[in-house]
Amino acid sequence: MKHLSLAARYRPQTFAQVAGQDMVKAVLSRAAAEDRPAAAYLLSGTRGVGKTTIARIFAKALNCEHAPGPEPCNECAQCRKITQGAHVDVTEIDGASNNSVEDARSLRETIGYAPMEGRYKIFIIDEAHMLTRNAFNALLKTLEEPPERVVFIFATTEAHKFPVTIVSRCQHFVFRHLSEDALAEHLSAVLRKEKMEFEEGAVRLLARRAAGSVRDGMSLLDQALALGGASLTTAMTREVLGLAGQELFGHLFEALHGRDCAAVADLSRQILQQGVDIGFFVRELAGNLRNLFLLRQGGAAVLPSLRLPADEAALQQALAPRFSAGHLHAAWQMTLDAQRGIVQSPEPAAALELLLLNLALLPQLLPLEHLPEQEAAHVPSAVPPVQAPSAPDTREPRDRMSASDGQAAPEARNFSAPAAPRPGPPQQSATPPSHDAPPSQPAQCPAPRGRAPEKAAAPEPEAEQEPDPAPATASEPAVPPAVTGTSPEAATDAEADAGQAARPSFQRDWQAFCEFCAAEQAAGRPAPQPHLLRGLGVDWREDRLRLTPKAQTLLHQLEKQRHTLEAALAAFGAGAPRLELIAPRPPRGEAELIEEFSKKPELQPCLEVLQASIIHCTEIK
Predict the structure, then answer these.
(1) Rounded distance, CA 169 to CA 158, Å?
(2) How many domains does the chain have?
(3) Which CDD domains does the record associate with it (predicted)?
Protein backbone atom coordinates (compact mmCIF):
# COMPACT_ATOMS: atom_id res chain seq x y z
CA MET A 1 0.00 0.00 0.00
CA LYS A 2 1.30 3.43 -0.91
CA HIS A 3 2.45 5.49 2.05
CA LEU A 4 0.61 8.78 2.51
CA SER A 5 2.38 11.67 4.14
CA LEU A 6 1.02 13.06 7.38
CA ALA A 7 0.09 16.30 5.58
CA ALA A 8 -2.10 14.38 3.10
CA ARG A 9 -3.48 11.95 5.67
CA TYR A 10 -4.55 14.64 8.11
CA ARG A 11 -5.64 17.33 5.67
CA PRO A 12 -8.62 19.12 7.29
CA GLN A 13 -12.03 18.35 5.77
CA THR A 14 -14.08 20.94 7.70
CA PHE A 15 -13.56 24.52 8.75
CA ALA A 16 -13.34 23.44 12.39
CA GLN A 17 -10.37 21.17 11.68
CA VAL A 18 -8.27 23.94 10.12
CA ALA A 19 -5.59 25.27 12.48
CA GLY A 20 -5.68 29.04 12.81
CA GLN A 21 -7.20 31.49 10.28
CA ASP A 22 -10.26 32.03 12.48
CA MET A 23 -11.45 35.19 10.69
CA VAL A 24 -11.30 33.63 7.22
CA LYS A 25 -13.12 30.51 8.41
CA ALA A 26 -15.86 32.57 10.07
CA VAL A 27 -16.53 34.68 6.94
CA LEU A 28 -16.59 31.78 4.47
CA SER A 29 -18.65 29.56 6.79
CA ARG A 30 -21.24 32.31 7.16
CA ALA A 31 -21.35 32.86 3.40
CA ALA A 32 -21.99 29.13 2.86
CA ALA A 33 -24.64 29.01 5.60
CA GLU A 34 -26.53 31.96 4.12
CA ASP A 35 -25.97 30.80 0.52
CA ARG A 36 -24.50 34.22 -0.38
CA PRO A 37 -21.04 33.59 -1.84
CA ALA A 38 -19.16 36.35 -3.63
CA ALA A 39 -18.28 36.09 -7.30
CA ALA A 40 -14.52 35.91 -6.64
CA TYR A 41 -12.21 35.38 -3.67
CA LEU A 42 -8.47 36.04 -3.38
CA LEU A 43 -6.70 33.96 -0.71
CA SER A 44 -3.09 35.06 -0.16
CA GLY A 45 -0.44 34.10 2.35
CA THR A 46 2.77 32.20 2.83
CA ARG A 47 3.16 28.53 1.99
CA GLY A 48 1.40 25.84 3.98
CA VAL A 49 -1.13 27.94 5.88
CA GLY A 50 -4.30 26.38 4.39
CA LYS A 51 -5.26 28.41 1.31
CA THR A 52 -6.06 25.47 -1.00
CA THR A 53 -7.50 23.42 1.87
CA ILE A 54 -9.99 26.14 2.81
CA ALA A 55 -10.89 26.65 -0.87
CA ARG A 56 -11.84 22.94 -1.17
CA ILE A 57 -13.81 23.00 2.08
CA PHE A 58 -15.70 26.08 0.87
CA ALA A 59 -16.46 24.34 -2.46
CA LYS A 60 -17.84 21.32 -0.56
CA ALA A 61 -19.92 23.56 1.72
CA LEU A 62 -21.52 25.27 -1.32
CA ASN A 63 -22.25 22.04 -3.27
CA CYS A 64 -23.10 19.75 -0.34
CA GLU A 65 -26.44 17.95 -0.69
CA HIS A 66 -27.39 19.32 2.74
CA ALA A 67 -26.51 22.89 1.79
CA PRO A 68 -26.90 25.66 2.66
CA GLY A 69 -24.97 25.05 5.87
CA PRO A 70 -21.87 26.27 7.70
CA GLU A 71 -19.92 23.01 7.21
CA PRO A 72 -19.86 20.24 4.59
CA CYS A 73 -21.11 16.86 5.70
CA ASN A 74 -18.28 14.95 3.94
CA GLU A 75 -20.64 11.98 3.57
CA CYS A 76 -22.80 12.78 0.55
CA ALA A 77 -21.76 12.02 -3.03
CA GLN A 78 -21.03 15.66 -3.79
CA CYS A 79 -18.59 16.02 -0.85
CA ARG A 80 -16.84 12.72 -1.60
CA LYS A 81 -16.31 13.61 -5.27
CA ILE A 82 -14.84 17.01 -4.37
CA THR A 83 -12.56 15.37 -1.79
CA GLN A 84 -11.35 12.90 -4.43
CA GLY A 85 -10.93 15.67 -7.04
CA ALA A 86 -13.47 14.09 -9.42
CA HIS A 87 -16.35 16.58 -9.30
CA VAL A 88 -17.31 17.87 -12.72
CA ASP A 89 -18.35 21.32 -11.46
CA VAL A 90 -15.29 21.97 -9.24
CA THR A 91 -12.20 22.62 -11.34
CA GLU A 92 -8.72 23.06 -9.88
CA ILE A 93 -6.31 24.82 -12.22
CA ASP A 94 -2.56 25.18 -11.81
CA GLY A 95 -1.79 28.78 -12.66
CA ALA A 96 1.86 28.01 -13.39
CA SER A 97 1.08 25.63 -16.32
CA ASN A 98 -2.20 27.21 -17.51
CA ASN A 99 -1.17 30.84 -17.64
CA SER A 100 -1.65 31.85 -21.27
CA VAL A 101 -4.41 33.95 -22.78
CA GLU A 102 -5.67 30.88 -24.68
CA ASP A 103 -6.23 29.09 -21.37
CA ALA A 104 -8.15 32.09 -20.06
CA ARG A 105 -10.35 32.16 -23.18
CA SER A 106 -11.05 28.42 -22.85
CA LEU A 107 -12.02 29.04 -19.25
CA ARG A 108 -14.42 31.80 -20.28
CA GLU A 109 -16.14 29.43 -22.75
CA THR A 110 -16.59 26.82 -20.01
CA ILE A 111 -18.07 29.37 -17.59
CA GLY A 112 -21.09 29.94 -19.77
CA TYR A 113 -22.54 26.49 -19.07
CA ALA A 114 -24.73 25.89 -16.01
CA PRO A 115 -23.59 23.49 -13.23
CA MET A 116 -24.22 19.87 -14.17
CA GLU A 117 -24.20 18.07 -10.79
CA GLY A 118 -23.72 20.58 -8.02
CA ARG A 119 -25.33 23.85 -7.05
CA TYR A 120 -22.31 26.02 -8.04
CA LYS A 121 -19.61 25.89 -10.68
CA ILE A 122 -16.38 26.65 -8.81
CA PHE A 123 -12.94 27.37 -10.28
CA ILE A 124 -9.96 27.12 -7.88
CA ILE A 125 -6.85 28.65 -9.50
CA ASP A 126 -3.75 27.80 -7.47
CA GLU A 127 -0.53 29.85 -7.82
CA ALA A 128 -2.65 32.42 -9.63
CA HIS A 129 0.11 35.03 -9.64
CA MET A 130 1.75 33.02 -12.46
CA LEU A 131 -0.98 34.04 -14.92
CA THR A 132 0.19 36.42 -17.60
CA ARG A 133 -1.09 39.97 -17.87
CA ASN A 134 -3.06 39.08 -21.01
CA ALA A 135 -4.69 36.17 -19.18
CA PHE A 136 -5.67 38.49 -16.33
CA ASN A 137 -7.10 40.99 -18.80
CA ALA A 138 -9.11 38.24 -20.46
CA LEU A 139 -10.76 37.48 -17.10
CA LEU A 140 -11.60 41.08 -16.18
CA LYS A 141 -15.07 41.19 -17.75
CA THR A 142 -15.95 37.72 -16.51
CA LEU A 143 -15.01 38.60 -12.90
CA GLU A 144 -16.95 41.85 -13.01
CA GLU A 145 -20.18 40.29 -14.37
CA PRO A 146 -19.93 36.51 -13.86
CA PRO A 147 -22.75 34.15 -14.79
CA GLU A 148 -25.06 33.03 -12.04
CA ARG A 149 -23.82 30.20 -9.81
CA VAL A 150 -20.14 30.70 -10.68
CA VAL A 151 -17.46 31.30 -8.02
CA PHE A 152 -13.75 32.01 -8.62
CA ILE A 153 -11.18 31.28 -5.87
CA PHE A 154 -7.63 32.53 -6.49
CA ALA A 155 -4.89 31.17 -4.20
CA THR A 156 -1.45 32.81 -4.26
CA THR A 157 1.69 33.34 -2.22
CA GLU A 158 2.53 36.62 -3.99
CA ALA A 159 -0.50 38.86 -3.98
CA HIS A 160 1.60 41.91 -4.90
CA LYS A 161 1.91 40.50 -8.45
CA PHE A 162 -1.85 40.71 -8.99
CA PRO A 163 -3.13 43.61 -11.10
CA VAL A 164 -5.13 46.10 -9.08
CA THR A 165 -8.04 45.64 -11.49
CA ILE A 166 -8.26 41.96 -10.46
CA VAL A 167 -7.86 42.61 -6.72
CA SER A 168 -10.63 45.20 -6.77
CA ARG A 169 -13.07 42.58 -8.14
CA CYS A 170 -12.31 40.03 -5.40
CA GLN A 171 -12.82 39.63 -1.68
CA HIS A 172 -9.22 39.53 -0.46
CA PHE A 173 -8.31 37.46 2.62
CA VAL A 174 -4.74 37.43 3.93
CA PHE A 175 -3.71 34.20 5.69
CA ARG A 176 -1.35 34.69 8.62
CA HIS A 177 1.46 32.55 10.04
CA LEU A 178 0.38 30.20 12.79
CA SER A 179 1.74 30.98 16.22
CA GLU A 180 4.15 28.54 17.80
CA ASP A 181 1.55 27.53 20.40
CA ALA A 182 -1.16 26.85 17.79
CA LEU A 183 1.17 24.84 15.59
CA ALA A 184 2.50 22.84 18.56
CA GLU A 185 -1.05 22.03 19.59
CA HIS A 186 -1.88 20.87 16.05
CA LEU A 187 1.21 18.62 15.88
CA SER A 188 0.43 17.19 19.32
CA ALA A 189 -3.08 16.28 18.14
CA VAL A 190 -1.63 14.47 15.14
CA LEU A 191 0.79 12.53 17.36
CA ARG A 192 -2.04 11.48 19.66
CA LYS A 193 -3.99 10.19 16.66
CA GLU A 194 -0.89 8.25 15.63
CA LYS A 195 -0.67 6.93 19.22
CA MET A 196 2.92 8.07 19.50
CA GLU A 197 4.52 9.16 22.74
CA PHE A 198 6.39 12.44 22.50
CA GLU A 199 8.22 15.06 24.50
CA GLU A 200 6.81 18.56 24.61
CA GLY A 201 10.27 19.99 23.83
CA ALA A 202 10.41 18.00 20.59
CA VAL A 203 7.01 19.26 19.45
CA ARG A 204 7.91 22.87 20.28
CA LEU A 205 11.18 22.47 18.40
CA LEU A 206 9.29 21.28 15.31
CA ALA A 207 6.81 24.13 15.62
CA ARG A 208 9.65 26.66 15.96
CA ARG A 209 11.47 25.16 12.97
CA ALA A 210 8.32 25.26 10.79
CA ALA A 211 8.12 29.07 11.22
CA GLY A 212 4.31 29.26 11.13
CA SER A 213 3.69 26.86 8.21
CA VAL A 214 1.43 23.89 8.98
CA ARG A 215 2.59 21.91 5.95
CA ASP A 216 6.26 22.46 6.88
CA GLY A 217 5.52 21.33 10.41
CA MET A 218 3.80 18.16 9.20
CA SER A 219 6.66 17.38 6.80
CA LEU A 220 9.25 17.87 9.56
CA LEU A 221 7.22 15.64 11.87
CA ASP A 222 7.05 12.99 9.17
CA GLN A 223 10.83 13.25 8.78
CA ALA A 224 11.43 12.93 12.52
CA LEU A 225 9.15 9.88 12.80
CA ALA A 226 10.89 8.17 9.86
CA LEU A 227 13.80 7.22 12.16
CA GLY A 228 11.47 5.00 14.15
CA GLY A 229 11.49 4.47 17.86
CA ALA A 230 8.94 4.17 20.61
CA SER A 231 8.68 7.90 21.24
CA LEU A 232 9.61 11.26 19.77
CA THR A 233 12.38 12.84 21.83
CA THR A 234 14.01 16.23 21.62
CA ALA A 235 17.50 14.80 21.13
CA MET A 236 16.35 12.55 18.29
CA THR A 237 14.50 15.42 16.63
CA ARG A 238 17.57 17.64 16.73
CA GLU A 239 19.73 14.87 15.33
CA VAL A 240 17.38 14.04 12.46
CA LEU A 241 16.75 17.64 11.46
CA GLY A 242 20.38 18.74 11.89
CA LEU A 243 19.71 21.20 14.68
CA ALA A 244 22.08 22.32 17.41
CA GLY A 245 21.36 20.93 20.88
CA GLN A 246 21.07 22.82 24.13
CA GLU A 247 24.41 21.37 25.20
CA LEU A 248 26.07 23.21 22.32
CA PHE A 249 24.31 26.43 23.30
CA GLY A 250 25.45 25.92 26.89
CA HIS A 251 29.09 25.62 25.79
CA LEU A 252 28.65 28.64 23.52
CA PHE A 253 27.37 30.89 26.30
CA GLU A 254 30.17 29.71 28.58
CA ALA A 255 32.68 30.76 25.91
CA LEU A 256 30.91 34.08 25.37
CA HIS A 257 30.98 34.80 29.11
CA GLY A 258 34.68 33.93 29.35
CA ARG A 259 35.52 35.84 26.13
CA ASP A 260 37.30 32.69 24.97
CA CYS A 261 37.88 33.26 21.25
CA ALA A 262 39.57 29.86 20.81
CA ALA A 263 36.52 28.05 22.24
CA VAL A 264 34.19 30.11 20.03
CA ALA A 265 36.22 29.21 16.92
CA ASP A 266 36.14 25.52 17.92
CA LEU A 267 32.35 25.63 18.38
CA SER A 268 31.98 27.24 14.95
CA ARG A 269 33.98 24.37 13.46
CA GLN A 270 31.74 21.83 15.25
CA ILE A 271 28.61 23.50 13.89
CA LEU A 272 30.01 23.23 10.36
CA GLN A 273 31.11 19.59 10.77
CA GLN A 274 27.77 18.46 12.23
CA GLY A 275 25.87 19.94 9.29
CA VAL A 276 23.75 22.16 11.52
CA ASP A 277 21.23 24.36 9.74
CA ILE A 278 23.01 27.71 10.13
CA GLY A 279 19.92 29.81 9.45
CA PHE A 280 17.89 28.08 12.14
CA PHE A 281 20.88 28.11 14.51
CA VAL A 282 21.00 31.92 14.30
CA ARG A 283 17.25 32.06 14.89
CA GLU A 284 17.61 29.89 17.98
CA LEU A 285 20.56 31.97 19.18
CA ALA A 286 18.44 35.13 18.93
CA GLY A 287 15.63 33.40 20.83
CA ASN A 288 18.00 32.26 23.58
CA LEU A 289 19.46 35.77 23.92
CA ARG A 290 15.93 37.15 24.21
CA ASN A 291 15.09 34.64 26.94
CA LEU A 292 18.32 35.40 28.83
CA PHE A 293 17.67 39.15 28.63
CA LEU A 294 14.12 38.76 29.97
CA LEU A 295 15.30 36.43 32.74
CA ARG A 296 18.11 38.86 33.62
CA GLN A 297 15.60 41.70 33.92
CA GLY A 298 12.53 39.94 35.33
CA GLY A 299 13.89 36.86 37.02
CA ALA A 300 11.76 33.78 37.56
CA ALA A 301 8.55 35.81 37.16
CA VAL A 302 8.88 35.70 33.34
CA LEU A 303 9.38 31.92 33.11
CA PRO A 304 5.66 31.09 32.53
CA SER A 305 5.52 33.45 29.53
CA LEU A 306 8.64 31.89 27.94
CA ARG A 307 7.06 28.39 27.85
CA LEU A 308 10.43 26.64 28.13
CA PRO A 309 10.97 22.95 28.92
CA ALA A 310 12.26 22.25 32.41
CA ASP A 311 15.87 21.52 31.37
CA GLU A 312 16.13 24.61 29.16
CA ALA A 313 14.55 26.80 31.85
CA ALA A 314 17.07 25.59 34.45
CA LEU A 315 20.02 26.16 32.09
CA GLN A 316 18.98 29.66 31.11
CA GLN A 317 18.14 30.66 34.69
CA ALA A 318 21.70 29.73 35.65
CA LEU A 319 23.24 31.60 32.70
CA ALA A 320 21.24 34.85 32.86
CA PRO A 321 22.80 36.40 36.02
CA ARG A 322 26.32 35.90 34.62
CA PHE A 323 25.80 38.48 31.86
CA SER A 324 25.01 42.15 32.18
CA ALA A 325 21.69 43.37 30.78
CA GLY A 326 23.52 45.70 28.39
CA HIS A 327 25.63 42.85 27.03
CA LEU A 328 22.60 40.63 26.40
CA HIS A 329 20.57 43.41 24.81
CA ALA A 330 23.38 44.42 22.45
CA ALA A 331 24.09 40.77 21.55
CA TRP A 332 20.40 40.16 20.82
CA GLN A 333 20.28 43.23 18.56
CA MET A 334 23.47 42.23 16.72
CA THR A 335 22.17 38.70 16.11
CA LEU A 336 18.87 39.93 14.69
CA ASP A 337 20.67 42.39 12.41
CA ALA A 338 23.12 39.73 11.16
CA GLN A 339 20.55 36.97 10.59
CA ARG A 340 19.64 37.78 6.99
CA GLY A 341 23.23 38.58 6.03
CA ILE A 342 24.51 35.22 7.33
CA VAL A 343 21.88 33.20 5.46
CA GLN A 344 22.47 35.04 2.18
CA SER A 345 26.26 35.25 2.52
CA PRO A 346 28.41 33.22 0.07
CA GLU A 347 30.39 32.08 3.15
CA PRO A 348 27.74 31.55 5.84
CA ALA A 349 30.10 29.60 8.14
CA ALA A 350 32.66 32.43 8.15
CA ALA A 351 29.91 35.02 8.69
CA LEU A 352 28.56 33.00 11.64
CA GLU A 353 32.04 32.69 13.18
CA LEU A 354 32.57 36.44 12.88
CA LEU A 355 29.22 37.08 14.60
CA LEU A 356 30.08 34.75 17.50
CA LEU A 357 33.51 36.34 17.95
CA ASN A 358 31.90 39.79 18.00
CA LEU A 359 29.46 38.60 20.66
CA ALA A 360 32.34 37.26 22.75
CA LEU A 361 34.31 40.51 22.50
CA LEU A 362 31.26 42.74 22.86
CA PRO A 363 32.15 44.04 26.36
CA GLN A 364 35.49 45.22 24.94
CA LEU A 365 33.96 46.65 21.78
CA LEU A 366 31.32 48.53 23.79
CA PRO A 367 32.67 49.36 27.27
CA LEU A 368 29.32 50.68 28.45
CA GLU A 369 30.33 51.06 32.09
CA HIS A 370 33.30 53.31 31.26
CA LEU A 371 32.00 55.13 28.19
CA PRO A 372 31.25 58.55 29.82
CA GLU A 373 34.67 58.70 31.52
CA GLN A 374 36.46 57.73 28.32
CA GLU A 375 34.60 60.36 26.33
CA ALA A 376 35.50 63.02 28.88
CA ALA A 377 39.14 61.91 28.80
CA HIS A 378 39.52 61.76 25.02
CA VAL A 379 37.39 64.64 23.76
CA PRO A 380 39.46 67.86 23.85
CA SER A 381 37.94 70.97 25.30
CA ALA A 382 36.42 73.30 22.72
CA VAL A 383 37.76 76.37 24.60
CA PRO A 384 41.38 75.99 25.74
CA PRO A 385 42.01 77.70 29.07
CA VAL A 386 44.28 80.76 29.22
CA GLN A 387 47.31 80.21 31.40
CA ALA A 388 49.31 82.90 33.11
CA PRO A 389 52.70 83.46 31.44
CA SER A 390 55.36 82.22 33.80
CA ALA A 391 58.46 80.11 33.81
CA PRO A 392 57.84 76.38 33.44
CA ASP A 393 57.48 74.68 36.79
CA THR A 394 55.62 71.87 38.48
CA ARG A 395 53.13 73.98 40.39
CA GLU A 396 49.37 73.43 40.17
CA PRO A 397 47.50 75.57 37.56
CA ARG A 398 45.71 78.68 38.71
CA ASP A 399 42.28 78.17 40.13
CA ARG A 400 39.81 79.98 37.87
CA MET A 401 36.80 79.66 40.11
CA SER A 402 35.00 82.74 41.31
CA ALA A 403 35.17 83.26 45.06
CA SER A 404 31.60 84.58 45.23
CA ASP A 405 29.51 81.88 43.51
CA GLY A 406 31.91 79.05 42.68
CA GLN A 407 31.42 79.45 38.89
CA ALA A 408 34.24 79.50 36.37
CA ALA A 409 35.39 82.97 35.41
CA PRO A 410 34.96 83.96 31.75
CA GLU A 411 37.90 82.98 29.57
CA ALA A 412 39.82 85.27 27.25
CA ARG A 413 39.87 83.36 23.96
CA ASN A 414 40.91 85.98 21.37
CA PHE A 415 44.68 85.77 21.78
CA SER A 416 46.67 85.11 18.65
CA ALA A 417 50.16 85.61 20.11
CA PRO A 418 51.91 84.96 23.43
CA ALA A 419 51.02 87.46 26.11
CA ALA A 420 53.68 89.88 27.28
CA PRO A 421 55.09 89.20 30.73
CA ARG A 422 53.54 91.21 33.52
CA PRO A 423 55.56 94.05 35.00
CA GLY A 424 57.15 93.28 38.30
CA PRO A 425 60.48 92.94 40.05
CA PRO A 426 62.86 90.63 38.22
CA GLN A 427 63.53 87.31 39.85
CA GLN A 428 67.07 86.88 41.17
CA SER A 429 68.82 83.60 40.77
CA ALA A 430 70.81 82.10 43.61
CA THR A 431 73.72 81.42 41.22
CA PRO A 432 74.63 83.10 37.95
CA PRO A 433 73.22 81.36 34.88
CA SER A 434 75.45 79.12 32.86
CA HIS A 435 76.64 80.46 29.50
CA ASP A 436 76.08 77.05 27.90
CA ALA A 437 72.44 76.76 28.89
CA PRO A 438 69.96 77.86 26.23
CA PRO A 439 67.68 80.79 27.03
CA SER A 440 64.42 79.84 28.67
CA GLN A 441 61.26 80.03 26.51
CA PRO A 442 58.29 82.08 27.72
CA ALA A 443 54.95 80.35 28.26
CA GLN A 444 52.70 80.38 25.19
CA CYS A 445 48.99 81.32 25.23
CA PRO A 446 46.77 78.96 23.23
CA ALA A 447 45.79 79.98 19.72
CA PRO A 448 42.19 81.23 19.16
CA ARG A 449 39.46 78.88 17.99
CA GLY A 450 39.26 78.44 14.25
CA ARG A 451 43.07 78.89 13.83
CA ALA A 452 45.77 76.23 13.99
CA PRO A 453 48.00 76.62 17.08
CA GLU A 454 51.66 77.25 16.49
CA LYS A 455 54.11 74.59 17.56
CA ALA A 456 55.40 75.38 21.03
CA ALA A 457 59.00 74.91 22.01
CA ALA A 458 59.76 71.97 24.25
CA PRO A 459 60.32 72.94 27.90
CA GLU A 460 63.75 72.63 29.39
CA PRO A 461 64.42 69.85 31.89
CA GLU A 462 63.52 70.54 35.44
CA ALA A 463 67.10 70.17 36.69
CA GLU A 464 68.36 73.09 34.57
CA GLN A 465 65.78 75.59 35.86
CA GLU A 466 66.35 77.72 38.90
CA PRO A 467 63.65 77.63 41.60
CA ASP A 468 61.52 80.68 42.29
CA PRO A 469 62.44 82.82 45.28
CA ALA A 470 59.10 82.06 46.92
CA PRO A 471 57.48 78.96 45.41
CA ALA A 472 53.73 78.64 45.79
CA THR A 473 52.23 75.69 47.55
CA ALA A 474 49.64 73.36 46.03
CA SER A 475 46.85 74.97 48.03
CA GLU A 476 47.68 78.56 47.03
CA PRO A 477 47.26 79.78 43.45
CA ALA A 478 50.31 81.42 41.88
CA VAL A 479 49.41 85.11 41.68
CA PRO A 480 51.71 87.43 39.67
CA PRO A 481 53.05 90.48 41.54
CA ALA A 482 51.13 92.92 39.33
CA VAL A 483 47.75 91.69 40.51
CA THR A 484 48.57 90.70 44.09
CA GLY A 485 45.77 91.55 46.47
CA THR A 486 43.07 91.64 43.77
CA SER A 487 40.15 89.31 43.15
CA PRO A 488 40.35 86.42 40.61
CA GLU A 489 38.07 88.42 38.25
CA ALA A 490 40.46 91.38 38.33
CA ALA A 491 43.39 89.04 37.68
CA THR A 492 41.63 87.61 34.64
CA ASP A 493 40.93 91.13 33.28
CA ALA A 494 44.57 92.05 33.79
CA GLU A 495 45.61 88.97 31.79
CA ALA A 496 43.24 89.90 28.97
CA ASP A 497 44.55 93.51 28.90
CA ALA A 498 48.11 92.29 28.77
CA GLY A 499 47.27 89.92 25.90
CA GLN A 500 45.48 92.68 23.94
CA ALA A 501 48.43 94.98 24.36
CA ALA A 502 50.89 92.39 23.07
CA ARG A 503 48.77 91.23 20.06
CA PRO A 504 50.48 91.78 16.67
CA SER A 505 48.67 93.12 13.62
CA PHE A 506 45.60 90.98 12.84
CA GLN A 507 45.50 89.06 9.57
CA ARG A 508 42.13 89.63 7.90
CA ASP A 509 41.29 86.27 6.34
CA TRP A 510 37.59 85.97 5.44
CA GLN A 511 37.84 82.25 4.60
CA ALA A 512 39.34 81.53 8.01
CA PHE A 513 36.54 83.54 9.63
CA CYS A 514 33.92 81.44 7.77
CA GLU A 515 35.57 78.24 9.04
CA PHE A 516 35.64 79.72 12.55
CA CYS A 517 31.89 80.42 12.40
CA ALA A 518 31.21 76.87 11.19
CA ALA A 519 33.19 75.49 14.16
CA GLU A 520 31.28 77.75 16.55
CA GLN A 521 27.97 76.52 15.13
CA ALA A 522 29.08 72.88 15.52
CA ALA A 523 30.06 73.55 19.14
CA GLY A 524 26.64 75.04 19.90
CA ARG A 525 27.82 78.63 20.38
CA PRO A 526 26.15 81.62 18.70
CA ALA A 527 27.59 82.47 15.29
CA PRO A 528 26.23 83.54 11.88
CA GLN A 529 25.02 80.85 9.56
CA PRO A 530 27.95 79.76 7.34
CA HIS A 531 25.86 79.85 4.14
CA LEU A 532 25.21 83.58 4.67
CA LEU A 533 28.94 84.35 4.74
CA ARG A 534 29.94 82.60 1.54
CA GLY A 535 29.64 84.24 -1.86
CA LEU A 536 29.76 87.79 -0.48
CA GLY A 537 31.74 90.67 -1.83
CA VAL A 538 34.24 91.38 0.99
CA ASP A 539 36.30 94.55 1.49
CA TRP A 540 38.09 94.12 4.83
CA ARG A 541 40.34 96.92 5.96
CA GLU A 542 41.86 97.82 9.30
CA ASP A 543 38.89 99.74 10.69
CA ARG A 544 36.12 98.78 8.31
CA LEU A 545 34.48 95.60 6.96
CA ARG A 546 32.26 96.09 3.92
CA LEU A 547 30.05 93.17 2.82
CA THR A 548 28.06 93.12 -0.42
CA PRO A 549 25.58 90.23 -0.81
CA LYS A 550 24.33 89.13 -4.22
CA ALA A 551 20.62 89.27 -3.40
CA GLN A 552 18.33 91.49 -1.38
CA THR A 553 17.10 88.57 0.73
CA LEU A 554 20.66 87.83 1.86
CA LEU A 555 21.03 91.48 2.82
CA HIS A 556 17.94 91.28 5.06
CA GLN A 557 19.21 88.10 6.74
CA LEU A 558 22.61 89.67 7.39
CA GLU A 559 20.91 92.73 8.89
CA LYS A 560 19.02 90.47 11.29
CA GLN A 561 22.26 88.80 12.39
CA ARG A 562 24.37 91.96 12.57
CA HIS A 563 24.91 91.71 16.34
CA THR A 564 25.80 88.01 16.11
CA LEU A 565 28.24 88.79 13.29
CA GLU A 566 29.91 91.57 15.28
CA ALA A 567 30.23 89.29 18.33
CA ALA A 568 31.76 86.55 16.17
CA LEU A 569 34.29 89.03 14.73
CA ALA A 570 35.30 90.00 18.25
CA ALA A 571 35.60 86.35 19.28
CA PHE A 572 37.69 85.66 16.17
CA GLY A 573 40.14 88.33 17.28
CA ALA A 574 39.25 91.00 14.72
CA GLY A 575 38.28 93.56 17.33
CA ALA A 576 35.32 95.80 16.46
CA PRO A 577 35.63 96.99 12.85
CA ARG A 578 32.88 99.20 11.46
CA LEU A 579 30.50 96.82 9.70
CA GLU A 580 28.88 98.10 6.49
CA LEU A 581 26.30 96.05 4.60
CA ILE A 582 26.01 97.29 1.00
CA ALA A 583 22.77 96.72 -0.89
CA PRO A 584 23.27 94.73 -4.11
CA ARG A 585 22.85 96.48 -7.41
CA PRO A 586 19.34 95.86 -8.78
CA PRO A 587 19.23 93.69 -11.90
CA ARG A 588 19.07 95.62 -15.13
CA GLY A 589 16.67 94.85 -17.93
CA GLU A 590 17.68 93.55 -21.34
CA ALA A 591 16.93 96.85 -23.11
CA GLU A 592 19.25 98.76 -20.74
CA LEU A 593 22.00 96.21 -21.26
CA ILE A 594 21.66 96.36 -25.07
CA GLU A 595 21.81 100.15 -25.00
CA GLU A 596 24.91 100.18 -22.80
CA PHE A 597 26.65 97.49 -24.84
CA SER A 598 25.86 99.18 -28.18
CA LYS A 599 27.68 102.34 -27.05
CA LYS A 600 31.01 100.61 -26.52
CA PRO A 601 33.60 102.20 -28.90
CA GLU A 602 35.22 98.90 -29.82
CA LEU A 603 31.94 97.60 -31.27
CA GLN A 604 31.06 100.64 -33.38
CA PRO A 605 33.14 99.69 -36.48
CA CYS A 606 31.71 96.17 -36.49
CA LEU A 607 28.13 97.37 -36.20
CA GLU A 608 28.58 99.98 -38.95
CA VAL A 609 30.30 97.68 -41.46
CA LEU A 610 27.90 94.79 -40.97
CA GLN A 611 24.89 97.05 -40.43
CA ALA A 612 24.06 94.80 -37.51
CA SER A 613 22.24 95.34 -34.25
CA ILE A 614 22.25 93.61 -30.87
CA ILE A 615 19.01 91.72 -30.26
CA HIS A 616 19.86 89.85 -27.02
CA CYS A 617 22.12 90.60 -24.09
CA THR A 618 22.46 88.90 -20.68
CA GLU A 619 24.31 90.16 -17.65
CA ILE A 620 26.77 87.63 -16.25
CA LYS A 621 27.08 87.71 -12.49
Answers:
(1) 17
(2) 5
(3) AAA, HLD_clamp_pol_III_gamma_tau
